[in-house]
């Protein structure tokens, strides 16, 4: 049911912040769940039959939150200002998880958000000569602090859901942040030669990223071996990076508990 560029929050939320022009579409959690309800009814007939069907399915709920922060951070909200809305965003995610569990889902994976301060798009847009704004790896501190704040709140709420549902539902926290951060910190371990430079782009410079010359735009080119890079286009990761994340979610250590279990 995923919608490209979708936020967790709905359009009125962004209108209230003066950010209507910063979201790509109106495809929030509420709409995606509506679609999910409609499609499951056509697949399994609704009612008890669908509950049984979803009981044997794996639901990956998100990642939600990233596009909400994108809208704020690229709409001249600081990371600290954006964090004021984290509780609302996390609560919206949790209510969505409760709805799919109520529909019968038993195994639900809930991903956190990524360390956005390590991504070429943010490093380019928020680049500064002030070294205090960066951590030892070269990632933007405030942006990563926002991601960490979100993930900590989300994990706390997931823990609450686990207590509420007990064995009736298996709710897993999928750790995007730690998986990607370890790749930034130990690139050779994963076969990467570049972690901050986008493979595809025409921006040049340190990060090969420019909003006016993104991957897919005229003049953009892709590197010869994307598997050498952590970042595909400055915004998204390469397939090589996602494979590492997938393995970490399926078998551990980046999903709690791991998706595959005996």
Protein described:
- 41% of the residues are buried.
- The chain has helices at residues 11-16, 29-44, 47-55, 66-73, 79-82, 86-102, 120-125, 141-165, 176-185, 239-251, and strands spanning 58-60, 107-111, 170-174, 200-201, 221-222, 255-256.
- A 4-stranded mixed sheet has the order 1-2-3-6. A two-stranded antiparallel ribbon has the order 4-5.
- It has a domain at 180-251.
- The two termini are 28 Å apart.
- By secondary structure, it is of the alpha/beta class.
- The longest helix is centred in the middle third of the chain and has 25 residues, at 141-165.
- Belongs to the 'GDSL' lipolytic enzyme family.
- Pfam families: Lipase_GDSL (PF00657).
- It comes from Triticum aestivum (Wheat).
- This is Esterase.
Task: Please give the count of helices.
Answer: 10
Biggest sheet layout = 4 strands, mixed
Average pLDDT over all residues: 95
Instruction: Tell me the fraction of residues in β-strands, as a range.
Output: 5-15%
Low-confidence stretches: none
Shape assignment = globular
- Relative helix content: 40-55%
As a whole number of angstroms, the C-alpha radius of gyration is 19 Å
Keyword list:
two-stranded antiparallel ribbon; glycoprotein; 44% helix; 262 residues; alpha/beta; globular
Q: Could you provide a short overview of the structure?
A:
The chain has 262 residues and is α/β, with parallel strands linked by helices. The chain has ten helices and six strands.
């Amino acid at each position: 049911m995923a919608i490209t560029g979708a936020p967790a929050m709905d359009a009125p939320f962004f209108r209230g912040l003066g950010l209507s022009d910063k979201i790509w579409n109106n495809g929030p959690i509420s709409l995606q769940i509506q679609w999910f309800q409609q499609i499951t009814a056509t697949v399994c007939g609704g009612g008890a039959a669908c509950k049984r069907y979803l009981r044997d399915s794996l639901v990956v709920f998100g990642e939600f939150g990233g596009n909400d922060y994108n809208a704020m951070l690229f709409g001249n909200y600081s990371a600290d200002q954006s964090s004021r809305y984290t509780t609302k965003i996390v609560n919206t995610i949790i209510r969505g998880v409760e709805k799919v569990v109520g529909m019968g889902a038993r195994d639900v994976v809930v991903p956190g958000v990524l360390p956005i301060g390590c991504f070429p798009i943010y490093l380019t847009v928020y680049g500064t000569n002030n070294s205090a704004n960066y951590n030892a790896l070269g990632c933007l501190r405030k942006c990563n602090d926002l991601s960490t704040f979100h993930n900590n709140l989300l994990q706390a709420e997931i823990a609450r859901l686990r207590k509420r549902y007990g064995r009736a539902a298996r709710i897993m926290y999928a750790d995007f942040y730690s998986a990607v951060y370890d790749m930034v910190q130990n690139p050779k371990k994963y076969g990467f030669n570049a972690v901050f430079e986008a493979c595809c782009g025409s921006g040049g410079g340190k990060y090969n990223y420019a909003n006016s010359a993104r991957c897919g735009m005229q003049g953009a080119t892709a590197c010869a071996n994307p598997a050498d890079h952590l970042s595909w286009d400055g915004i998204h990761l390469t397939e090589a990076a996602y494979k590492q994340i997938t393995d970490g979610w399926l078998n551990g250590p980046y999903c709690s508990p791991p998706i595959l279990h005996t």
